[in-house]
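Worked example

This section walks through a single chain of length 257. The input is the sequence exactly as stored; nothing has been trimmed or padded.
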Amino acid sequence: MPQSQALLKPVADWSPRELVPSVWYQLDNSAFADDGGNDVVTQIFDQSGNNEHLLPAADGNRGDYVASSTLFKKHSSVRMNGTTDYYEVEDALGLAMNGNDKAFTAWFVGELDATGDTNAAWSITNMAVEDSYLTALSNAGDDARLFKNTPGTNASFTSTDNWLTDSGKRHIWIYNGGGGDNKMTWYKAGSALNLGGSTWDGDIVTMDDVAMGALVRSSAIQLWKGEIAELGIVAGRAVNATELFLLDSYLFARYGK
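Given that input, the structure is written out below as tokens.
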């Protein structure tokens, strides 16, 4: 993929809405409220048109609202504390991630505070089936990892590339599904990571519960410590090369490296 750092701006008026996302969240489109003198994010609105808005599980799970983040070119973000803060929506319309044949595209903009912990950027799960989940995370060794697990099967795509680099704010995942060659590609800051593993084990469990900033199973684990500005998922389709270029260009122009 051409390096989008060379771009000053994306194609005029293009936005991820043209990808027809299943869910799409920007912290610029969120609600916040005062909580003892500190603004916290109370809801993150779905920009896809499917109205799958993210909510905290409880008031104690609300992250701090950053109105103008220095990390993301003055766009808004939510600061997660790594212990209690995360957002979720159950039974998200149009996701139904299941099986070896379900292609998808996802993108994420966020930055971690520190090394040495396992931090989930996002997850798609089935809360009724404990060990069914798809999650992208920085593991305890700070490697970038995408992991899918269902009872009896799993697939892990891991790069020794450290998630925590100054150039690592924007990430794009593309899986072309069983109808293709089961290829998983992960782009960080416009460059493809070297992933281990090449196959994606199939299953019949539907995963349609979405979380930002945690892996949510029967409870939330591996909570994100740092800021998040955007998350989007297209279920059932791997974007093509032109769409990838436009998406990465949009993220670079909006948030920087």
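What to look for: The radius of gyration is 17 Å.
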